[in-house]
Automatic annotation (TrEMBL):
Protein name: Glutaminase
InterPro entries the record matches: Beta-lactam/transpept-like (IPR012338), Glutaminase (IPR015868)
NCBIfam families: Gln_ase, PRK00971.1-2
Record: residues binding substrate: 70, 120, 164, 171, 195, 247, 265
Assembly notes: Homotetramer.
Family: Belongs to the glutaminase family.
UniProt cross-references to Pfam families, sorted A to Z: Glutaminase (PF04960)
EC number of this enzyme: 3.5.1.2
Catalysed reaction equations from the record: L-glutamine + H2O = L-glutamate + NH4(+)
Keyword terms, alphabetized: Acetylation, Hydrolase
Length: 311
């Protein structure tokens, strides 16, 4: 139901919710399965909102960089979609999986076609496409992300990429398993090297909200004056974020927050309200499903308080 447009004092809303959330217990646990991620201070908590009118509001540690992990999968998917168009859906599906992000189980019965591009398996297939396309995948991908951010101050964390590679037995199994079905074309070693780097990209909430504006602002253009995706493709990426962006808690995120978004095990969440704003939150402690405990709490309160959700 569309109510009358009202003026919202975003700064006040953000600050009030931030203090409410901080005053409550910080539940959950930091992801430690990637040893390097375990070093982060659990009390970090930041939020940044960027509106269509280019108004920016930040609270807490909104300018501190962190490991965006799976949030990067939206960026690789968008680039692959831009390059290959609808061909990509022959190799990866768009259905919520209802299984953990690193699950192998459905791949056997699905003949190596991952359920969606945000599961590790699906993201690896997308990485494989980019590895085939780019001459220097790592450099070219980073350049594309910097272009979206309109900043050159975005980089991989070699320490995080190396740390994940050193313990990435399940991801290596996934990639080799998909290769056995012929849905990975390059050498798994190369695809995994790119995948681990992609996940290691570091950004602040401020940078994340800027980077993801291409999914919120239909008029967004890069410095060359081009759209990243046309409206139909933007709709589809947002739809996949809505249905698959939060592991097997995507239904819960829709229910509580009501925005398309994506989370990562570094504790980041980015969400967009198409035509209105992009919001990024970061707090490293994760709930049982792997989503930021405080991030989800904040966003639920934010869309409830502002009455701004796509539903
Ligand atoms: N690099 C992480 C992994 O593959 C990404 C996990 C995530 O953020 O969902 O395990």
């Amino acid at each position: 139901m569309k109510l009358e447009e009202k003026t919202i004092d975003y700064k006040k809303v953000l600050t009030t919710i931030y203090h409410n959330v901080v005053s409550e217990e910080n539940k959950g646990a930091i992801a430690t399965y990637i040893p390097e991620l375990a070093k982060v201070d659990a009390d970090n908590f930041g939020v940044c909102l960027l509106t269509m009118n280019n108004e920016q509001f930040g609270v807490g540690n909104w300018q501190t960089k962190f490991s965006i992990q799976s949030i990067s999968k939206v960026l690789s998917l968008s680039l692959a979609y831009q390059i290959f168009g609808d061909e990509i859906w022959k190799r990866v599906d768009v259905e919520p999986s209802g299984t953990p992000f690193n699950s192998l189980v459905q791949l056997e019965s699905d003949f190596g076609i991952p359920r969606n591009p945000f599961m590790n398996s699906g993201a690896m297939v997308i990485c494989d496409m980019l590895v085939s396309h780019y001459e220097n995948p790592k450099e070219d991908f980073l350049a594309a992300v910097r272009e979206l951010c309109k900043s050159s101050d975005i980089s991989y964390s070699e320490a995080v990429a190396k740390s994940e590679a050193s313990v990435g037995y399940r991801n290596k199994a996934l990639c080799n398993f998909i290769k056995s079905f012929g849905n990975i074309k390059n050498e798994p070693e190369e695809v995994l090297g790119f995948y681990f780097h992609m996940c290691s990209i570091e950004m602040s909430c401020q940078e994340l909200s800027q980077v993801f504006m291409y999914l919120a602002n239909p008029n967004f253009t890069t410095s060359t004056g081009d759209n990243v995706l046309n409206l139909s493709k933007t709709k589809r990426i947002n739809a996949i974020m809505q249905t698959c962006g939060f592991y097997d808690e995507s239904g819960e995120f829709s229910f509580r927050v009501g925005l398309p978004g994506k989370s990562g095990v570094g504790g980041g969440i980015v969400a967009v309200y198409p035509g209105k704003y992009c919001i990024a939150a970061w707090s490293p402690k994760l709930n049982e499903k792997g989503n930021s405990y405080r991030g989800m709490k904040f966003l639920e309160a934010f869309t409830t308080e502002t009455e701004e959700s796509i539903f």
